[in-house]
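Project channel, design review

CF: Before we commit to the Shewanella frigidimarina constructs, I'd like one complete example in the thread so the newer folks can see what an input/output pair looks like. Taking Two component, sigma54 specific, transcriptional regulator, Fis family protein.
RD: sounds good, go ahead.
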Amino acid sequence: MEITANDILNAKILIVDDQEPNVLLLEQLLLESGYTMVTTTMDPQVVCDLNRINNYDLILLDLQMPKMDGFEVMAALKADHSMDYLPVLVLTAQPNHKLQALQAGAKDFISKPFDLVEVKTRIHNMLEVRLLYKKLEKNNITLEDIVQKRTVELTKTNLQLGLEIEERKKAEASLRDTYTQIKQLKDKLQAENTYLQKEVARQFNFDEIIGSSKLLSQVFQKVEQVAPMHATVLLLGETGTGKGVVARAIHSRSSRKKRPLITVDCTTLPVALIESELFGRERGAFTGSDSKQIGRFELADGGTLFLDEIGEMPLEMQAKLLRVIQDGEFERLGSPRTIKVDVRIIAATNRNLIEEVRNGKFREDLYYRLNVFPITLPPLRQRKEDISLLVNHFLIKFNKKIGKQIDIITQDALNTLQQHQWPGNVRELESAIERAVILSEGKSLQILDRFESFDKLATIEEPSMKALVELEYEHIVKVLQQTGWRIEGNKGAALILGLNPSTLRARMRKQGITRQ
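CF: and here is what came back for Two component, sigma54 specific, transcriptional regulator, Fis family protein:
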């Protein structure tokens, strides 16, 4: 039993969402795709009445609506004996709502913001199943009618008996085929739902950071320790090591996870606008500000603010940022009213902030406010045992994205990847694997990149870094000897070195410096 494209395009669809842009977007998408029977409503209270009149084949239902939310609509449809056969496809932007919706009786869900290709695919698949069920019901009725008619006729003539048996065999064969198709489609939908539920369950989990190395395990341990607290976290590490992912992991494990995580990329904000972006502005606060703007701190109230690349923030803005971190209050540009907020700060940088403080480019008091709980993310070259795991992860990802079936990684290919120093870290590796998947022929991953220039640079830099550490060691020992190993006070080594005494002690412990 086959469902044609016309059958699907003529199915009756109801869109329920209190946001007019969402309704218009979905309606336009369906109409442009050729669907002819599309109804919309922004009033969830009329859904049951509309369904009784129109007998819909599919309802696209938003979960968060005033007066009556999506869960209440599904409960009303259940009470009306409609949910047993009517597919409901819920629309939600909340990951934790998806599993609830499936448990409440929804057949599937679509995440907001919409992926239009995904929306069309899911609607097509669900309608195909729905119409198969309808045809099955119709076939059952037809079959019963045939049986009744044939039974009457069998009493009149034995000659027609063979014909009736043959007809019944054909009908049963058709029915078995129909059940087989339904089972296949049901299994497919079930597998997709299982996959999506796993994706929801692990969203912003450590699965986003692939690796089992000791250095990475230490990072995971620190995240677990600090996430439930309200302490400020400073993420340190080179570009591409995953500082943004760790920030999201901390937020998702905190008591603030139901509130927003607002990200501020300090490298992209223009100096002239950074204050209004962070703190907001009133209309007419400066030339060209023709509307009121809510700042990032207000948006993050009750949640978390992620200040990415904090080392790039202009010096004049650092004092104002320090005040908000210390007192939890600020004023919008153009307004005298003080606004109080409760925001957790996570900052990240690839710079050496201690050097920035020494060079007068970063405020020392702000540094100490941010450096409450530092977490250093190791570069990829220091955890090369994770490269094979990362390659497998990215290979699965890009096979699916590009539509290939590459499942063989030769030892030569792996050796090539492990010999590279990866100055761009995991981000560079991800790009290299995507490029390799595109260029590879057959089922074996082919690494065509040549990394010589970067590797030579990295080889040159490693001794320099080592020499810098040794130089710092010698300098600290020399100053301590000059001060008679006195650390604090006006004549102490900490003041001469421009360090906080506790920082100097930590450096001494780290480098094994003891009194000689």
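RD: helpful, thanks. The first strand starts at residue 12 and ends at 16.
CF: The mean pLDDT is 84.
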